[in-house]
Amino acid sequence: MATATTLDVLDAQGKKAGSVELPASIFDVETNIPLIHQVVTAQLAAARQGTHKTKNRGEVSGAGRKPFKQKGTGRARQGSIRAPHMTGGGIVHGPTPRNYAQRTPKKMIAAALRGSLSDRARGERVHIVESIGVLEAPSTQTAVEFLTIVAPGRRALVVLDRTDDVTLKSVRNIEDLHVINWDQLNAYDVLVSDDIVFTKVAFDEFVAAKKEVSA
């Protein structure tokens, strides 16, 4: 069985301020690519509104009479201006409102998240910080400068606890950065990000919640 690995905790200046253990049950499991693909596909499908709609020949505007008389015009006979082949007519086999949601067991969702986090951890792309460089007042510039040092990848995912409003206000408008609460963490957001940055409080709460579930 794999053992827990140790990861440095960085302070507001980007220097080591301590260390934590990454539980092997969360950050060092096998990455099941087909399972992750299925979970991510289901998540993206569930995000679709499904409100697309076209009108069929019974719904478009137009009279019910014949466009012109049956005989004597030299043209092909027509029964309605609402027919699909007529200009402004109904659409054949067009999209209708539907629900794209797929049933995905909770255990699969949890396994996909563990596999995604493990992949990033093995690539040394998981970082834990005491704060994002801001303490009392929000400062986007300070957060950008700090994250440039801690998370050098192009896209970063910042994981916070729900009470950290100062950090949220500092990072929410940064380009190519996504911020999320620890209890909303999912495989898709992990996979589309190059670096995962946990605050120490968010990391502790996330690990504690996962251990309670597995207990």
The main sheet orders its strands as 2-1-3-6-4-5
What is the CA-atom radius of gyration, in angstroms? 27 Å
Number of helices: 7
Structural class: alpha/beta
CATH topology of the largest domain: Ribosomal Protein L4, Chain: A
Biggest pleated-sheet summary: 6 strands, mixed
In the CATH scheme, the class of the largest domain would be: Alpha Beta
N-to-C terminal Cα separation, in Å? Answer: 17 Å
What count of structural domains?
A: 2
The fraction of residues assigned to DSSP E strands is: 5-15%
Average pLDDT confidence is: 91
Assign the CATH architecture of the largest domain: 3-Layer(aba) Sandwich
Tell me the name of the CATH homologous superfamily of the largest domain.
Ribosomal protein L4/L1
| Tertiary shape | elongated
Percent in helix: 25-40%
Low-confidence stretches: none
**Annotation, overall tally of beta strands:** 6
Q: Spell the H/E element sequence.
A: EEHHHEHEHEHEH
Question: What key attributes describe this structure?
Answer:
single chain; 215 residues; alpha/beta; Ribosomal Protein L4, Chain: A; 2 domains; six-stranded mixed β-sheet; 7 helices; 6 strands; 34% helix
